[in-house]
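Retry 2 of 3 after timeout on previous attempt. Resubmitting structure tokens to design endpoint.
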């Protein structure tokens, strides 16, 4: 009680400040060299929460955020930026965070106007909200905290090689509402880069070291138990380029990547070396020619690395033994004029993977139309055919195409587009990927103060030889606006096959060679409806409801997940003073977690004012 009385007294003091404080000066100087600007928002209010987790609570509280910028001596010598925020959530600030988020974001630059510039940054947050991703639909709500810092320095001396170094360390911990256990991650990243120009050659080199430690709770683990995993990688490379006659360019590069991944379920390590050389010339203003030669000595390692870079944990890859690839390709682009472009290509790849020698030759062309004015007043398009020939014979034609339409019919504004692509997978030749995307939209001005709009999009992607790998997604959205009122509705649905990671599901479908133990079948749908109103000048009212459900099935477990969110907020601006009120409700359950669904409610109303202190 004593604490609330103290906060109440502070609140009355803030109310006096809100009413009587005068605008500050534009900038303050401390001594002869230090210059600073400070502005922000300070507020006071009353809020509470209740639900299935913990006891209900209510209290008087303070909230605010600010921005402090400044420099010492001059901005080229030292400059800084600090942005603290406290008790900021979707009910009492511009952020859409569900929880009372607090933290700070800061950065400093030193010697930015010299040959030896440096920088540092630091950020920390508490009670931040996020989503555990589910492709195509609303994800599961998470709550967490984390911090990150980065430091870097450069040496940019004329006529000498440049050198830049940076180090970043970050750590995050989050929990999914309705499930037990935390998802914790720690990442460390070191970068070193250098460039130099000598006898017409532009040279560049780099080195990167990255390490990641993950702790995942049982409900998202592959082997049905809480797991710890770690991974590290070292990548370095060099690049040399030189200009050629006919506005051309030559470049050659070598990259070497080593990785070491480990977890309770799978582990892998390896080294991948990649060499590449390219040449491009422009004999005429309309013709561009391009050629490339590329060699990779470890295809399985490259596939594993692509999964790790996408956020995935270590997986078992079929045929993960000796593998390599050599490929050549040539492209030609010719402008036919009037927006038409002709593109031709031929390529050959020879690979050894999973105990087999594989050869593939592709050739074909495309015709496209890039418009400043649509063809026939409404169309734009591109299309082409690609022929695929292997050592076992011709496998037929692949097709790529895009077509779209934009047209106004009276008061109706319409558009539609469709695209399709079928391409041989370049990492492992025995698979072919295909993707389809299409959509349409309409908009109509019913009266000077009333309009209606609606849109639909759909996508499909997967491996042509494995129809079970195909993923589908559909999205529908409609909006009706009348004067100062809007009504919006959305519906989305998705299903397919993917890989589960600590941050959610990877999208699109997994790459070939991944065994079934790591694959997860998902099926989800979500819908939302929202109302926006401005009944009075400088007043804004928002009400939103979202409902999402999903099923996930893996080789060891299945789960039914549900999320229901209700959110409302009222803002009324009186010059620099803002009156705010809001209410949030979340209901979320995950059957695989083994705990009952969680319900959380929070409400807030208060007053805040923007200040330009100095």
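Retry 2 succeeded. Sequence:
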């Amino acid at each position: 009680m004593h604490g609330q009385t103290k906060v109440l007294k502070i609140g009355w003091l803030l109310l006096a400040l809100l009413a009587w404080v005068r605008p500050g000066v534009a900038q303050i100087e401390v001594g002869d060299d230090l210059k600073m600007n400070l502005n922000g928002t300070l507020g006071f209010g009353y809020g509470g929460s209740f639900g299935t987790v913990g006891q209900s609570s209510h209290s008087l509280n303070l909230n605010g955020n600010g921005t402090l910028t400044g420099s010492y001596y001059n901005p080229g010598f030292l400059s800084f930026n600090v942005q603290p925020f406290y008790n900021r959530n979707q009910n009492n600030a511009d952020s859409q965070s569900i929880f009372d988020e607090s933290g700070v974001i800061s950065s400093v630059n030193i010697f930015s106007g010299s040959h030896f510039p440096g920088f540092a940054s630091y950020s920390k947050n508490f009670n931040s909200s996020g989503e555990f991703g589910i492709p195509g639909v609303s994800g599961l709500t998470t709550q967490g905290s984390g911090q990150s810092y980065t430091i870097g320095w450069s040496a940019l001396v004329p006529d000498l090689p440049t050198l830049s170094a940076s180090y970043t360390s970050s750590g995050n911990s989050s929990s999914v509402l309705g499930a037990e256990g935390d998802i914790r991650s720690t990442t460390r990243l070191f970068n070193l880069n250098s460039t130099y120009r000598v006898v017409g050659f532009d040279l560049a080199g780099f080195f990167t070291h990255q390490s990641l430690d993950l702790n995942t709770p049982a409900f998202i683990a592959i082997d049905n138990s809480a797991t710890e995993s770690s991974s590290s990688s070292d990548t370095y490379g060099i690049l040399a380029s030189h200009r050629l006659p006919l506005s051309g360019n030559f470049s050659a590069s070598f990259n070497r990547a080593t990785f070491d991944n480990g977890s309770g379920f799978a582990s892998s390590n390896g080294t991948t070396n990649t060499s590449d050389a390219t040449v491009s010339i422009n004999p005429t203003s309309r013709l561009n020619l391009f050629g490339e030669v590329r060699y990779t000595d470890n295809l399985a390692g490259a596939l594993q690395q692509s999964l790790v870079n996408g956020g995935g944990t270590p997986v078992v890859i079929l045929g993960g033994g000796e593998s390599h690839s050599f490929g050549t390709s040539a492209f030609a682009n010719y402008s036919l004029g009037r927006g038409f472009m002709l593109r031709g290509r031929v390529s050959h790849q020879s690979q050894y993977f999973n105990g087999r020698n594989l050869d593939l030759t592709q050739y074909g062309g495309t015709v496209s139309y890039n418009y400043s004015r649509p063809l026939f007043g409404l169309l734009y398009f591109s299309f082409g055919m690609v022929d695929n020939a292997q050592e076992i014979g011709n496998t037929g034609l692949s097709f790529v195409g895009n077509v779209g339409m934009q047209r106004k019919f009276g008061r109706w504004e319409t558009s539609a587009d469709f695209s399709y692509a079928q391409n041989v997978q370049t990492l492992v030749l025995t698979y072919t990927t295909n993707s389809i995307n299409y959509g349409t939209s309409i908009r109509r001005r019913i009266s000077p103060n009333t309009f209606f709009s609606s849109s639909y999009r759909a996508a499909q992607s997967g491996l042509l030889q494995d129809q079970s790998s195909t993923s589908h997604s559909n999205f529908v959205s409609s909006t009706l606006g009348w004067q100062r009122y809007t009504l919006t509705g959305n519906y989305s649905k998705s299903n397919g096959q993917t890989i589960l990671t600590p941050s959610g599901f990877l999208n699109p479908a997994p790459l070939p060679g991944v065994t079934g133990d790591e694959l997860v079948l998902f099926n989800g749908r979500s819908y939302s409806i929202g109302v926006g109103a401005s009944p009075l000048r400088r007043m804004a009212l928002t009400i939103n409801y979202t409902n999402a459900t999903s099923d996930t099935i893996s080789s060891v477990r299945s789960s039914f997940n549900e999320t229901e969110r209700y959110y409302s907020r009222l803002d009324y601006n009186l010059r620099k003073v803002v009156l705010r009120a809001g209410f949030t409700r979340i209901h979320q359950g995950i059957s695989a977690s083994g705990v009952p669904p969680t319900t959380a409610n929070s409400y807030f109303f208060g007053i805040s004012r923007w200040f330009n202190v100095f």
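Attempt log closed. The chain has a mean pLDDT of 77.
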